[in-house]
Design brief:
By secondary structure, the chain is an alpha+beta fold. The chain is built from 5 helices and 6 strands; from the N terminus they run E-H-H-H-E-E-E-H-E-H-E. A hairpin with a 2-residue loop joins strand 3 and strand 4. The longest helix has 16 residues. The protein starts with 6 loop residues before the first strand and ends with a strand.
Length: 162
């Protein structure tokens, strides 16, 4: 078990993450979990992310061990359109290098909660792929969407932190 002092978790500018190899981790992440790879290529819109980051609507937390980037947890952060007085953090991507998983993943999820709270976030939303994780029955709306050709591909989880 790694000593907690070897890990750091903090918001980092996208440019720093790009300079430190996030694209390789992102590629590995895409290979591991993406659906329809032959039709939808990994093609990050870095320019748009930089714009959103510049106005405070996108933030990426970097998990490092001994200075090496081993994971990330990125969010779109803005008030919900139905609850404009409440700041939400919508998880965009979360990933930990498979060789580093275990408690590193716990640190990544728990560690960002106070960081998000410090940004004024009250509710955090995560999504998970059902083809990667065990899902649950989505109910009548899910049944309808399945019949209409939609793929059940994610589950959502939320937590009040503020």
């Amino acid at each position: 078990m790694m000593d907690a002092s070897e890990y750091t978790l903090r918001w980092e500018p996208l440019q720093v993450l790009l300079d430190d190899g996030i694209e390789e981790l992102l590629q590995n992440h895409w290979v591991e979990v993406a659906m329809d790879k032959d039709s939808i290529p990994l093609d990050p819109d870095w320019d748009r992310m930089f714009i959103l980051e510049s106005v405070g609507e996108f933030a990426a937390a970097a998990l490092r061990r001994n200075g090496k980037l081993i994971g990330y947890n990125a969010f779109a952060i803005y008030p919900h359109v139905h609850y404009k007085s409440t700041m939400y953090a919508f998880n965009d991507v979360i990933y930990v290098d498979p060789a580093e998983r275990g408690m590193a993943g716990v640190r990544l999820v728990r560690g960002v909660e106070p960081m998000l709270k410090a940004l004024g976030v009250k509710k955090v939303i995560y999504h998970t792929k059902v083809h990667v994780h065990v899902g649950h029955n989505d109910g009548l709306v899910g049944d309808l969407l399945n019949c209409l050709g939609y793929k059940h591909f994610e589950n959502l989880y939320s937590k009040l932190i503020g």
